[in-house]
User: Fold these one by one.
Assistant:
Number 1:
Amino acid sequence: MLTTMSFGEKAKTMQKQEWGKTADGQPVYLYTLSNKKGMEAAITTYGGAVVSLKVADRKGEFADVVQGYKDVSGYETDKGYFGALIGRYGNRIAHGEFKLDGKTYNIPKNDGANSLHGGAKGFNKKLWTAKDVSGAAGQALELTYLSKDGEEGFPGNLSVKVVYTLTENNELKIDYAATTDKDTVLNLTNHSYFNLAGAGSGDILSHELMIPASRYTPVDSGLIPTGELAPVKGTPFDFTKLTVIGSRINDDNEQLKLGKGYDHNFVLDGAMGTMHKAAEVYEPKSGRLMDVTTLEPGVQFYTGNFLDGTVTGKDGKVYNHRYALCLETQHFPDSPNHPNFPTTELKPGHRYHTTTIYKFSVK
Ligand code: GLA
């Protein structure tokens, strides 16, 4: 790619490297996108996972702010969905069962009695086909995957395209598109684990968070929404103003106990279908700020409650309890079983399209 440079700027094209093989011998690649500000995003064709994301702090020093593994086998054995693309259905489907057009479909139950993040082998365990589609918006990587009719129990041949773009505004933009040849349900997201002080450097309890959501979806003991859209006002779920994450996480609150911390879907106040704010995260020591905007109606805020130090990531870092947070933009969990939630149905002739942007700056 030819780029025009102004004085002092370094041009670097997208880097592609061979990144070993899956256990069954298929080659995996790692692509590194960069911008002129020095920000870098490394993405693997295995699960379409963001492996590393290097972002400057207020002194201009870079740190990797996402959890990840050093090699493919880490991603093959991963149970935490680190950095991965999630599908066909991000979050939970109660009892792995839903009805569509009068027919019952069953998805493997991989989370107790329920199905989580696409079933036993979701998009996070698939090999994606990559293509450099860099252009005026920045370096961009297109990942495509064809999910066959019946895969993990879902109907329809589903053709999925995800484009990661790293812009000169220090945004990691994720565009998701899909078409189907049969009525189906779909809820795509990315499952990056952020720690703005640097992945593996400590817990995220002193990060500050804002989520513009006046309601959230309370859950039962299997983390399935009860169907209620409950007000956050007067509860530890009120993040409408920038609030220290750890300040209420141990409150005597039934929903916090059920989630073992925060593991809940927030109903965003912004209008679905136009880009609106999903969250703002601030880490006071480094000054790093992350702004999340989306077309989605919800965001799952998860405080790494299942991280327990048994996993060692890239650079030998151990990921202990609450060392990272996830902000998974999404339609609400278990929507196929909740007619009052925005629909996740996709029909032939229609094109699924959604966008989420993670923008980095300092304060
Ligand atoms: C989502 C879920 C959590 C957990 C993580 C992966 O955030 O809501 O309960 O399963 O994925 O560990």
Note: The longest strand covers residues 352-362.
Number 2:
Amino acid sequence: MIERSKTVMNDLVAAIRNVMLKHEITNEELRFAVKYLKETANTEFELELMMENFFEITTAHVTNNKNSGSASNIAGPFFLEDAPDIGSEGEIKTLEEGEHLPIVIRGQIKDLAGKPISGVKLDVWHSTPRGTYSGVHEGIPSEYYRAKLTTDEMGYYKVRTTKPVPYQIPDNGNTGRLLKSMGRHAWRPAHVHFKAHKPGLQEHITQVYFNGEDYVDSDCCEAVIDELVIPFVEENGEQVIIKNFVLDAA
Ligand code: MBD
Ligand code: FE
């Protein structure tokens, strides 16, 4: 731990000092930054959001550089334990009100040797058709828009739900304001989150994005990875996203 800190923190301080010198940061600007960070930390969820927005994708890239399975991606702030268990195939509870497009997400989970893996617990969660998250934002109980699947004996899973929409990070908070001051917007493209785990395998956190949609090329979290941008295919009149997984060993 101390060795790690010696290496990393000395580098980090040096990197920040280089930026300060390059841009001739004044003491007033340093004080402003400290005040901004303090305010961020004193606002519930805001420091977490800021760090996830700017740096979580980098830890995903570190993981992906070491692994040979499918690409990991950021978790974001809205995973909840204890989503409804629906077996290998089922429906996510959705609210039928308003505009919503029914979709199917299905796929197969294999190990690095190409062998299907049964009994993988696969959490799936995503926004409502209004761009909010259940159990987090007002008015949607947590058993909606989330489910825990378990792959069948051939590693398959299949879930019916509604299509999520782009998500806007609160633009009146310190993360949204910082993004704006950087000339960037606070939107994420529509996405579906996944977390796969089974003893003996690495826990795998990822997302999928939809081919050709808004903000896929300008995600405020810069988290879109080509491999995770998936086209809809039509199967029996249904709009289907096929997301397969290859999981690395623990
Ligand atoms: C989200 O839904 C999300 O996925 C991330 C990474 C950040 C904020 C909201
Ligand atoms: Fe999200």
Note: Residues 76, 78, 167, 191, 193 surround fe (iii) ion (ligand 2) (CB under 6 Å).
Number 3:
Amino acid sequence: METRLKLAIQKSGRLHDDSLNLLKDCGIDLKNGINKLKTEADNFPLEVFFLRDDDIPQYVEDSVADIGIVGENVIYEKNKKVTVSEKLGFGKCRLSVAVGRNEPYSGCQFLANKKIATTYPVLVAKYLKEQKVDAEIHEISGSVEIAPGIGLADAIVDLVSSGSTLFMNGLKEVETIMHSEAVLIRQSKLGLAQQQILEKLLFRIRSVRKARHTKYILLNAPNGKLQEIISLLPGMKSPTVLPLAEPGWSSVHSVVNENDFWEIIEKLKEAGEQGILVVPIEKMIL
Ligand code: PRT
Ligand code: ZN
């Protein structure tokens, strides 16, 4: 039987769609049946398990799954023996301490002898130990943000992304314990065949992620301005310059990183460029 790599992803929740989209962008088509416990890919040696995110590190540690996609917050809370192979750039959030909006918070000593509600008791205990603060940790399983309002705790530690949950519950964020994003984890004892499939998958993931952060731009310029324009465009190696049918004009093509994109466009406009075409890149093989 053909060797397949077993991947565990979240069954439903915040990481589910982005995990499936990543596979899709990697050109991996899953058979129908994502409502089941597992499915397989049609065109890549991959089997996909759908699980609760909390269970994924354990399944990977136990080699039931070879690899998994899960938030860093879950890995470090569960403290399992798994290796992080790649950051995936989605599911970004932070684990933060929050207190009532009107509390006179001036530093983490405020938490001394207070009750802290959280679903992350391991990470909170580690943080309090590092900060040399003695506090009481109340582990609860959900709706942490309502704990101060109902008198269950003086502070909470929870995941925050936009901050609106804290705001709506009259809380303010006062410390960040860790930043987290979805990562690809692997078990420690992968066989050679699985290792090779993982390398192929990682190669595709990196190409997709590079492309997501990069744009392809095309513009036409009079030859007299080419040097100035080329100096503004980094490109993968150097921009491509092609002659246009109209004498004295060229077409310039280049690849621009998302972070520098607007700055470069502004400079090109200052240099007199107008007809700039920007297109997304599907994959980048470097
Ligand atoms: O059912 P299962 O156990 O699989 O799912 P779950 O309910 O435990 O997890 P889920 O789907 O809520 O989150 C999965 C992962 O997404 C987390 O482990 C994080 O790595 C990541 N993630 C990113 C988040 C958030 N952002 C996030 N904002 N997980 C939870 N939240 C919650 C937070 O707990 C709080 O209730 O969203 C609320 C705050 O959001 P804002 O935007 O109001 O700040
Ligand atoms: Zn969960």
Note: The first strand starts at residue 5 and ends at 10.
